[in-house]
Amino acid sequence: MDLSFDLLRTFLAVVDTGNFTMAGEQVHLTQSAVSMQIKRLTEAVGRPLFHIQGKNIRLSITGELLVGHAKKILQTHKDACAALSRPDLTGRVRLGSPEDYTSLFLPRILAGFTDVHPNVQVALTCEPTPRLVALLNKGELDIAILTAADGNDGRTVHFEQVVWVASKDGAALERDPLPLALYNYNCIYRQWAEEMLSQRGRNYFAAFLSPSISGILAAVRSGSAIAPVGRSIVPPDLKVVGEEQGLPELPQAKVTLHRSRQDEAPLVSCLAEQIEAAFSLIPPGGIGALTIIS
Q1: Of 66, 71, 127, residue with least CA distance to 96
Q2: How far is it, in rounded angstroms, from Cα 69 to Cα 255?
Q3: Which residues on adjacent β-strands are paired with residue 57?
Q4: DSSP 83-125
């Protein structure tokens, strides 16, 4: 089975755009050339990758399976090229991230980045988004991963569905007013939770306040509270609850990647690219199911 890089790149362009003409513009090919490459890839795989009805294009089951593998293959190739073309990068890059991503996501990214660029030092700052914005504006960070940040200068890398989580027995759901475990600083998740519950007319109170996600999840595990958290970080020993329990649906949060300056050193660009690529590989099961290939 010949899964060439060119065919996989064109395949992902069609997936991203949902249109052969627009995909061609993305990979600098004509529409007919895109059709030919998709045909070659389909023949190589031996099963249809798309269901095409007129102008509607949707992935087949085989196509859905190939998407994740194609992204990993192309990212591995990109990393290999980067390692061979810039093996001697040295210096220090300052990265900021909220604790949600620092504890469950960044270890895999940083391990892969260190393998490719062993002489680059990464200084990691773990703070809530409002504090990271301030550090970024003061030039004390080179890159920052921000959640629902204001402004349009960042690059959107992920949309995180915010959900309610409770202990398996759901004991806290029976209490009135509803006990919540929340961050003890200005957090968009907390703001959404309080606004949505007020609109629903549901009584609540802040039973637990914590500066860390680990403290919030501990309170939920105890059965003493429920909490609004990102879907990607829900651990298997807790359950997602919602409308069936009388809780309002929460919004999606936008995750953006920000750089403090435009003409940053190559090592800053390399780390930013690694982070962006890793976010694109987050599967439906969330960050816990993610595998980063360096």
Answers
A1: 127
A2: 23
A3: 52
A4: HHHSTT--EEEEEEE-HHHHHHTHHHHHHHHHHH-TTEEEEEE
User: What pTM was computed for the model?
Assistant: 0.65
110 contacts: CB under 8 Å, gap ≥ 6: 122, 124
Q: How far apart are CA 236 and CA 253, in angstroms?
A: 22
Question: Of 119, 60, 56, 130, whose CA–CA distance to 93 is shortest?
Answer: 119
Instruction: Tokens for 56, please give them.
Output: 């509607």
Output the CA angle 157-162-167, nearest 5 degrees: 135
The DSSP string of 114-149 is HHH-TTEEEEEEE--HHHHHHHHHTT--SEEEEES-
Digit-coded pLDDT (tens) for 203-253: 999 999 998 888 999 999 999 999 999 888 888 899 999 999 999 999 988
In the chain, count of helices (H) and strands (E)?
10, 11
Q: Give the span between the Cα atoms of 123 and 267, in whole angstroms.
A: 13
